[in-house]
What we know:
Elements: H1 17-31, H2 44-48, H3 61-66
Region (Disordered): 42-69
Organism: Micromonospora musae
Protein name: Acyl-CoA carboxylase subunit epsilon
Amino acid sequence: MSAEEPLLRVVRGVPTAEELAALVGAVVSRSRPAAAPAPAAASAWARSGRPAAGVTAGPGAWRASGLPS
């Protein structure tokens, strides 16, 4: 494609400046790679199944794991 060749060409009708702007905006937005969605925060239900922080292995650890923090 040469520098003089247009990126878009209207082959039928007479679009207004607003219609051309909308078309260019749609083409540009489709040509960009989509951003990766942000990871969702874990729900309280999901966190409840995870081991408690600070509980270490050793004597009495199984008992401490069931006690409230």
